[in-house]
Amino acid sequence: MQTPPAEQTKARNVDERSVADARHDRFFHGVLKFSALLVLATLLGAALSTLWGGREVLFGQGLHFLTSNAWNPVEDDYGAVAPVFGTLVTSLIALVLAVPVSFGIALFITEIAPAWMRGPVSAAIELLAGIPSIIFGMWGLFVFVPFMSRIEPALSATLGKLPLVGKLFQGPPLGLGLLTAGIVLAVMILPFISSVMREVFQTVPTRLKESSYALGSSTWEVVWDIVLPYTRSAVIGGIFLGLGRALGETMAVTFVLGNSYNITSSLLMPGTSISSSIANEFNEAVGTHRSALIALGFVLFLVTFVVLLIARLMLRQLVKREGK
Amino acid sequence: MLTSTKSRIAMIVAASLFSVAAAQATDITGAGSSFVYPVVTKWSAAYAAKTGNQVNYQSIGSGGGIAQIKAGTVDFGASDMPLDSATLAKFGLGQFPDVIGGIVPAFNVEGVAPGAMVLDGPTLADIYLGKITKWNDPALVKLNPGLKLPDLAITVVHRSDGSGTTFNFSDYLAKVSPEWKAKVGEGTAVQWPAGVGGKGNEGVSQYVRQIKGSIGYVEYAYALQNHIGYALMKNAAGKVVKPTIATFQAAADTADWKDAKDFNLVMTNAPGDTAWPITATSWVIMYKQPKDVAHSKVVFDFFKWSYEHGQEQARSLDYVPLPPSLVKQIEAYWASEYKM
Amino acid sequence: MSTQGIYLRRRIVNVTALLLGGCATVLGLLFLVWILWVTISNGIGALHLSLFTKITAYADEGGLSNAIVGSLIMDLMALLICAPIGVMAGTYLAEYGRNSKLGALIRFLNDILLSAPSIVMGLFVYVIIVLPISNMTHGHISFSGFAGSVALALIGLPVIVRTTDEMLQLVPGTLREAALSLGVPQWKLTVQVLVRAAASGIITGVLLALARLAGETAPLLFTAFGNNFMTVHPLDKMASLPVAIYQYTNDPSPALHSIAWAGALLITLFVLALSLLTRLLFSRKKVSYE
User: Fold this and answer.
1) Chains touching chain C, criterion 3+ CB pairs below 8 Å
2) Which residue of B has its CA nearest to A263?
3) pLDDT digit string, tens, across residues C250-279
4) I want to staple C151 with a disulfide (CB 3.0 to 4.6 A). Which of A188, B256, C125, C282 is the partner?
5) How do residues C12-43 score in pLDDT, each as one tens digit?
6) Rounded (10°) angle between helices C3-46 and A115-130
């Protein structure tokens, strides 16, 4: 029996089609993979291009660049210590302030607030994350700096008198400086940390919490003894995520930090940070100066990369435990 | 409106993908000195209205102006620090003055009116060295016997960017204070012993307005327009002078441009009873063999126009117009040095 | 200690902790209200029609028209660059790289890119686009709206990758199996079935990316530079709203401050409206995009 010609063509068509389909699939796969690799390339490119741009200082001066606190465009002598110091100190202040507050917010939303309130409150806190950083900068300069210059005398008079930590709070009430920048950063990273905490707190199995309640625990005891230990790694991950944000923030701090390369013991004094140094000086820098700024960019990239790496690894631990 | 914007945007996107042609030849970009920013923006607006050519001037500091013109990313750079002839020759650049103005110490001390305080060079240097830290320091009281100075901490405000204003200011301090010369020196950016850094003349004015007890140094127009207190200065002749167009002019008159190769001349600490001690010139820096001749022609046309028609506007902002003899010298310089 | 005492102590600790939690929330909300209030009250007074008709060059009676147009152009171009790449990369992660090592690595690094400092992205684009183009064209073209868009695109990219990936993973596997059993090729399945099923989520991601990149200033400083005149040419130096705000804020003139506030209000409204829109669009499925 002969196969009718129509069916033959059909069979051939199917054959051809599957060949064509396979070809298209390979092509499709290739294009998608290429796009995904672009993500990798971006990260790698950012690292390599800043390494390349800063090579003169990084390889030429290496240790001197990392350990010197000079920033002298007249002599073309640059050191990373002052900007790195400012970046770390402001970020640390931000963490010290933002972590407890974020924890309080997460605690309030997950354990205290009535159900109807949870959605709106967490949405409002997250709105804070949506405000562009330049707005934080404006608010910082025009509103918060004058505010701080009014309360700084009181800080100097009280905290400034304490032994040990007193030195941190002495100085003229400029309003701008490390402390102000740290507070502005704290407000900026608060929504990030609190939203991670809130999310991970919600992943704690209800039976764990209820068992504890059944044993007579108070709400606080459940949070402190059950929820926190269960989510510890993710909470730390969230904190590091906030730290990563704070380290790289530019526009919010550049107006309120004071742009001074002098390292002082007082938090009320002006300082500088890696990102604000770059923003301020990049367009005017030539030669070694420009190289030093790009090298600073590389240092910043490296530090935030490590911090964010830790953050993601910590966050992943909880996901793994959840069996996702 | 909306659809036209949409189609416009679509066009732009298409253009961005396919076209390599640059923008219209008549749009030129300059960058640098914030010292001249107020007057150059005025000029550029008037010039655009008249000729349709747009001069986009960005105030990024003189250091930035020099950097960008060297990199060739702008059509002209503007700097209040002259480049020396060797540097100019090395990069194939030429420079010429566009305007002269005064730098004034600006302060924010409650109860002290603008122009009520007198300073001299060494005292100013000591303040910027961080040696004088209170407004009622004996040195200040001695200069201002009639003034009631408060027991208030001095906050020094300096530039955070590379600046020709800083160059002239530090050049002046180096001339009057050996300690400043030894410890800090002069340049568009220096290692400041003390204080807060503001970006541009704008940023310094901003901080001085905002911080009580602060002192800064800005181009006169910034102090005047923003109602910031400015100080009188004791000049090289030992006379107290007020910053006015007349005292700037007096300092400018001492300059001997004839013998200044490439107009390389700094007029701080000028002699003469009425000369303002921190008077500064601003220069325009351009390639002698421009990569884009059409652009450079517009730049020359713009500054030629400004010498002829822009001087009134300059005067209204308290800059000193260039003397006619200097303008002639500049035009001769253009003809001999620039090849187009 | 007596049982009574322990009980009392526990109660005090509990009440204090909960009270402090409430205070922390009030504090957080207070800052939100404070910042929004300052922006709105300062911005509304300065919202004049002249903002949209005048350019930034006229220092005394300045406007923002060139900055607004510049921002619109660069934001849109940035989206045109990062949306296709981001959606494709996200699709790769969800459909091909779900269990592969490469997929896991890219997903992980994308999450890091999500929080990478934006100023470094500006440096990156400066080194790979602005400098080479400037050298190639002898300075004819250097800083440009195009370079600014690329920098912004790098900010938006990881947001889109992340949301696309997560949204596609939410599409039930049965849909894939059903289509595959009909002999549909993988690409058709992905484009016509999966992406369509996850469309609202993917659009959310694109809008989120727009909200994120529209407020960025730092990456534009040395890529797009600035321009006091109106330009729509992508290879020109281009003004943008955030950079104009930055410059006006730095200026001592109160008149320019109020224009800066008006610009700040515009940009905040735009960004917040976008994030509210995405919330409404996508209130059912949950994505975290920290």
Assistant:
1) A, B
2) B194
3) 888 888 889 999 999 999 999 989 988 887
4) C125
5) 999 999 999 999 999 999 999 999 999 999 99
6) 50
